[in-house]
Amino acid sequence: MRIKRFFPKALFAVIAFLCAAWLTLFTIIFVYSFSDETQKADAIVVLGAAQWNGAPSPMLQSRLDHARALYNEGYAPVIFLTGGIGNGETISEAEAGARYLREQGISPDALVIDPRGSTTLESLQSLAHAMAARGLGLSMLVSHDFHSVRIKKMAKDIGIEAVVSPVHSKNIFDKLRYAFRETVVYVIYILFKK
Length: 194
What we know:
The chain is an alpha/beta fold. It has helices at 2-32, 58-72, 93-103, 120-133, 148-158, 172-192; strands spanning 43-46, 51-52, 55-56, 79-82, 111-114, 139-142, 162-164. The strands form two sheets. It has a five-stranded parallel sheet with strand order 5-4-1-6-7, sandwiched between helices. Strands 2-3 form a two-stranded antiparallel ribbon. α1 (2-32) packs across α6. The model has no long low-confidence stretch (mean pLDDT 94). InterPro entries: Cell_Envelope_Assoc, DUF218, Rossmann-like_a/b/a_fold.
């Protein structure tokens, strides 16, 4: 009889704990999305996003424009472009980004194309090797604000010294929606390292 009374209370306590933990993580991701760690670095790193037939998607273009501004303001002497080739595509996100930046006046000598990653984690793992091979230390990661917590955690786990200079979402509802999604993705990363 005691087990029948105890089980629903224990189940409720576990569910309440998991909901509180999820809400706490969501809050951390949302609040951190307003931060910006922009500072001098050895490299600016643009994390990939979709490209359409060689042209950056609006999301990728906003990251590239932010990286271009950082480069032009002298924050770092080189821009790494990450992102592989998507299904049915013939060009990588990294190459599409490099083309766009060259068209915007960035010297090809300042661009490093690294198309080996098809996920954020794979891109950062490849970046770690490329940075080490060039003797570079601090990287400034450029992505959208809702990614900041996860990419900072991934970089730390891989051993990349990194700060985040995010593209800030202009619409608060988009930020909330993406923070919700990012909370799920962050939990998947913590549990499965994917």
